[in-house]
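Subject: mismatched residue count in predicted assembly?

I count 759 residues in my input, but I want to confirm that the predicted structure covers every chain. Input:
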Amino acid sequence: MKTFIKNLLPLIALIALAGISSCKKDSFTPLTTPPVGLGGDNGPKNAIDQFIHDSMTVPYNVAVYYKWLPGELDFPSAITPPDESKVIPICQALLNVAYAPYNQQTGSTTFLRHYLPKALELAGSAEYLANGAIFLGQAEGGTAMLLYTVNDYSRLKQDSNTFKQTMHTMHHEFGHILHQNVLYPVAFKTISTGYTAQWYNIPDATARQSGFITAYAQSAPDEDFVEMISSMLSGGPNGPSGGYDEYEQLLTQTGGPGSTGYQTIKAKEAVVVDYFQRVWNIDFYALRAKCRTAFVNYLQ
Amino acid sequence: MKKILLYTLAVMTIGSGCRKTYNDTIQGQTPDQRVAAALTAYKQKLTSAPYGWIFLESTTGTAYNQGVSQTGPKIVLAYYMQFTDSGRVTMLSDFDPTMAAIPKTSSYNVKELTRPALIFDTYNYLHVPCDPDPNVSHSPFGFGYGWGTDFEYSFSDSVAATSLGDTIRLIGNLNSAQGMLIKATQQQRDAYLNGNVQNLMVGASNLNNILEYFKRLSLGGVSYEIRFDAVNRTITFTWVDASGAIKTSTVSYYITSTRIMFSSPIVNGNQKITGIDNLSWNAGSSTLTVTIGGQQGTVTGAAAPIQVDAGAAARWWNYGVNNGYFWASGYGFHVNGVDDAYGVRQLTDSGRVFYYYAYWPGYYSNPLDRFRPIVLGNNGLYWNSYGTVSNPPLYLSDGRAVFTKFTDQGTVPPGGPVAKSDATLYNSAGYYFIQNGEKNYDMVLATDARTWISWFWPR
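Triage response: the counts match. Full output below for your records.
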């Protein structure tokens, strides 16, 4: 054993030396160029990208994703990307009918710039769920907003129902963003009972009689709250016959003043108005008037 | 020996552990750089074809949404595509005549996913059959499903991008549709841009000018019965082979710039049919001339099937009796080139509207059959308030089936759609039955084969 160590010693010394020299750290060289492939898609910019940059990104700090990003929307769902020809029109509609009233009411773009989710994702079709319902929009924790059915977008009066649906989705999702930032009074959740996951089996008119402004409002208190906001902010007076219904008209389906449905919805309306005033310092009725005017004026 | 091993181990441990080499590079390239180079090579491959590409897409017959699959017809679609450096793709499609004639441009991208991927990332003709809205895609797979086609593909050839040849294989990431990009020739490009796909579609639609149900193709002395199914994109050939046996073959078709192509050839002895081209309609003789494999053929109407399926009528009737339900038709009789010639779809009955025309074999246990419309009311389906009771069909030795009326039920308004349908059903010439699927039969009036009704099993 002794011989073994004796024989080995020079070798170990040699190896140790070699090891030290080869393990010497090179001097630190900072990266001068970013790693290849970082920074997202860097394809050529076209007129749509320029419009998004000038009208959405610069004033509102919002990135608009209209090209299909694998895995970005619910995976694995049969969803299609939007038609390019619909991208600028739908952005313009959002700017004019959904954003402008907020700007006028708050006096500047600061409010939306602060609270609008930083990503707006567009899909051409809806997302079809196994229960037969479809997603028209989604809000993701205050950071991203998804608008589906962009390919159906139209601002023609004859398509005013589709147009109203788009605005309804927009106000609905922005409502989520607002309450995800500052929650509405907890008492709101106890105004109604009867929230159900099977909301899609209930016709809207029946939901209204039970004090929910839409059937979807009956799915959960969060949805109820934002459906109240979006039902009041989208639509307008004097729609073409068979066209959009506005809030007052929806209320006639409750059974009228004095009915439980009517009173329940009015109680929720009061919470929404109070919430906007106290949390965001926005006069909801004044905002609503501006939204309705913008809506009616935008239809062709 | 043990010592040597130990030394070696020690040397290896110390030597390799401390050697500072950049072995995450190959020829000085980091993985990111190599990925970027490969993606550029794929893109260059796509943009370097001077006359663009023909893209063939074959579905598996399964479509997915939210992890749930549905099955339906397998189809093959053909596109013409031109890719540019600036991320644009222009295409034509054989999905419908408009898409075959007017090019549409959108964006595409080549990206690194689990495999290198070709993504058609904004809407174009390719996305129409993918659309989950059945009003857009006309997909029979149901609400929320397209045809099982894809718009996000992985490159599936296991070779480097630079080694790809003139055929590039792709596989769809959602539905696993098989894609194949084939480099187009100048001639093919010109034919596409001249609207030849639309011409071929129009040529094929001339088959509808032949008023007879049976379309007989004669080619090199052989007769074939052919049937186009434009909904499921198939063509069926029926013929009698050398041994006298009846043969049937159904294949998917797709349309390229030069031909209506079959997904697999129809083989009859030494005759092999891979596609049809040069379809031209001769109004004088009511015939369609075609070219098949360089040989000219003629399609004419025929009053009787090439070979009668003698057992079909009895199979149809017995299926109804054994399963205790009715055969349904959504359109009633087709007569002399007119769908729903008697206007049954306009039928109303005390506020209820037409839903099906029904034939219920053995509705009464005697047995007697019921031939009567079914109407849709507020709370479901109802029998129309009038119709007829039929005796079970008589099967003639030549394969025809003849219906005779047992009695009227209710008051059948004279001259109305039900009276006309009754008169047609009880025509003494009788009917040929053609089975088109497990639960699909066509019933063709034997007088001149210009009147027929299609039955499906509504359960």
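Residues 77 and 360 of chain B are 39 Å apart (CA to CA). Marking this ticket as 'not a bug'.
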